[in-house]
Design goal:
single chain; five-stranded mixed sheet; three-stranded antiparallel sheet; elongated
Length: about 270
Amino acid sequence: MAKPTSTAPTKSKFFRVAVEGATTDGRVIDRAFIEQMAANFDPQVYGARIWVEHLRSTWADGAFKAYGDVTAVKAEEVELGGVKKLALYAQISPTPELVAMNKARQKIYTSIEINPKFSDTGEAYLVGLAVTDSPASLGTEVLSFATKNPGNLFSAAEETTLEFEDTPTEPEGNKLSDAVKNLLKRFTNKTSSDDARISELVGAVETLATHANLSADEFAEEKTRVDTLEAALKKTNEEFAAFRQKVESTDANPKSRPAATGGDGMAETDF
């Protein structure tokens, strides 16, 4: 019997990626930029991918390949050093490699890439998110990249710890209850063979063993149902055995009925 499997989380919780203020090249990310990015971001219009040090590789398996995507952003006010500032929070869908790096405490800082006048909107838009190891700056490689893209702003790095949204799972007790209910329904189907019913019964017992963490009351209730099923199956088997014995004891080639004897078929009557 296959063991229950769990699906790995694919969406992070929101975490802070930028705060209004200075960028790596001395320019300022003002409050309006944060507000506009939060209002305008739409992955269907233009997706913001996740890169190492903002560097893009032309090879899918290169060191500077994309490590996921930004799925949503929002703006929230925070207090830093007694001063209230507007911050941008992002939710991402990371690749397994990025998750592994973050768990290993590598590339734990994030920096956003902003186009201050995106397309024909004339407003700021989030066009990329980078992971880096440097909390103070993004290193000479990124500064070199920034000089080739003078129109974009690169924010100061923010430390990041990836936490994932909880994936709702069905309680094990409910799964077991549903499994037994389905089993009872199948058993009442008169067209099912005995072998199929026995197989279903074995499956139910295995399910009970797998989910041994049920409470005593729940276990007792499910055991009662299985006991009832066992009794019904035993009765069916006995009835089938009796029917088979009756069939086997019946003469398959009965003799013809003896011909009737008598006169010429005329009844004699006394007057």
